[in-house]
Amino acid sequence: MKTKPSSLAVVLASSLLLGTASFSSIAGNGNGNGNSEQPFPGANGQPFQALQNQIDILSADLATAVAFLQGQIDELVSSQADQDTLILALQTALGALEARVETNESDIEALTLWNNMQDQLIDNMSARIDGLEERISDNEDDIAAIILSDQTMQQMIQVIQRNISIINRRISSNDSDIASLQSRVSYLNSQISRLYVQLRAKQNRISSYCGVGSSIRVIYPNGSVLCEVDTVSAGVGRLSPRLEVRSVSMPSSIFTVTNRSVTATCPSGYQLSGGGYTVANGGLGAGMVRQNRPRGNSWYIWAQADSTFSSRNLYAYAVCLRVI
What we know:
Keywords: Coiled coil, Signal. The chain has helices spanning 3-32, 47-209, and strands spanning 214-219, 225-229, 239-250, 253-265, 271-280, 289-295, 298-308, 312-323. By secondary structure, the protein is of the alpha+beta class. Strand 6 (289-295) and strand 7 form a beta hairpin. Helix 1 (3-32) packs antiparallel against helix 2 (47-209). The longest helix is centred in the middle third of the chain and has 163 residues, at 47-209.
């Protein structure tokens, strides 16, 4: 790139030299005619020396001009190289920018596609939400009814819980009564057993003391008897005990009162001498046995049971005796 500017400098220098020489020749011709006050240097016989001096001066000026022009050209060449480097860098940056633009265009296309898919998804979800809102509107009456039913159920649960608390308190308060009654029943059973033993002992003693044709007149506490002659019939004067038992089932009941009655009756030929009752699988509570009494030749029991979780059996006992 430096060759062409150097040739240009030589051409410019040659043009300047020729122009100056022509100007000098023209000026010399004018002075030769004697029209100038200063004589031409060649008038002294040395025209070529004067011309050579002028040429040397012009050559020096031309060299100075050429050097100046060459410096300007070198500066332009250096600036051109810098510009080429800058252009190359700009082209590289432009290529990278174009690549980034292409990448961004691909990303934009992908994002556009994703955005379209999201729009479709949003539309579908909006449609489903609208459908759900319609269903909710349609079910509002059912929901209100369910809420009302739930409130009623909660109230019933609270009532049941209060009743259960009352029952638990009643059960707790009746535990001592039940224990007392069970103890009393055990005591009565032991008394009955003892009476049976005493009856058997007395019967044995009666059989051993009263002979044939005699009957009992007095029975003493120690089992001894006072006999008297019986003129009615043989064999009269011996006691025969019998225990009659009848039962009735009392089913479980919640918040209701169950009434049950049972009667144990002495068979024909026997006379009622006493009676009582027991309850299997639990008690009845204090005051729940309303009647416990003899009725004719029977023993009658009437009882009530409430708030029970299991069935029980009510037993009536009739102690019967006959003389044989």
